[in-house]
Amino acid sequence: MRRVKTKICGLTRVEDVIAAEQAGADALGFVFYPPSPRAVTADQAAILCQKTGPFVTRVGLFVDPTPAQVKAVLSQVPLDLLQFHGEESEAFCRQFGRPYIKALRMRPDFNPAQAPDLWPSATGFLLDAYKPGVPGGTGECFDWRRFPQGSQVHWILAGGLNPDNVSQAIESTRPYAVDVSGGVEAAPGIKCAAKIHALIQGVHCVSLC
Question: Of 48, 71, 124, 205, which one's alpha carbon is 20 to 30 angstroms from that of 41?
Answer without folding.
Answer: 124
